[in-house]
Amino acid sequence: MEQAALISEQLALLTPLVLLLVAILLILGAQVLRRQRLRQLSLRRIPAYRAMPIGVGEAVESERPIHVSFGSSGLGAEATVSALAVADMLYPLAERAAISDQPPIVSLSDPTALPLAQGTLRRAYEMRQNMDAYRSTAARWYPQGPRSLAFAAGVAGALADEDASMSVIGGRFGPELAFIGETATRYDQLFFAQSDQLDGQAVAWVMAERPLIGEELYVAGAYLPARPSALHLSQVLTMEIMRVLAIVGILFFAVFALAQRMLMDVNFLLTVIGGVLLVAAVGMAVVFAIRQLRGRGRA
Known about the structure:
Elements: H1 2-36, H2 47-62, E1 66-71, H3 80-97, E2 105-108, H4 113-128, E3 139-141, H5 149-162, E4 166-172, H6 177-186, E5 190-193, H7 198-207, H8 220-223, H9 230-262, H10 267-298
Parallel strand pairs: 1-2, 1-4, 2-3, 4-5
């Protein structure tokens, strides 16, 4: 119990440091990208983001709506980051669809996500200068609570009734995601899905034509717009740097534990090994970031 309490204290101290590091990397990355104008970077291929714009184009041509769902993600709770990520994904899709008179369908069950969805749709239509086609009622609140089968069944029924062309699911979903996926399959709709819950992600992996895996949802702002902002591109670089640091950190603690077991009395040697590995981790992260900037800048 004492050891668990000690670990909990250490994690509580480590979390603000990690958040501070992420904020610093985001700010520095955005500033570098703005000054060097490295906007057209070669990003890792994500098939779902390549197919989504094509699906929106087909929906516009056929005069059918697209559907984007926040699920039970909302602002001010655990799923705040997921809600903002879905909004980043909704905006470029809605902007492409805004040239049509058929507004997108946006579904959600957390009331705090309703103004976020409406504001995102409004910005997209203002960008296209087609406010006559904007409908605030396109964002629909289904008041059934988180992870609700009734919510998923209601959304699935709406997609069938309005003959949606494409359905994009992201945020907080559980197994109820299968209701929407089954409707998409039955009515021959394109289906892209992701969930920040393990059981929902499992359903998305099985049912979606091109599923989004884990953190891929959070980089939509760098993939879907024709000209992504420096901030969104810096998010991608920050995630890559943090991934490298996490891998090196795991290796460091594994080596440290092994050395501690083998050389219990040689504290100085352990300190030296730890310092060398820490310097190597930071160096690898910096070199990785510089190579990414140079390689994507040439692309």
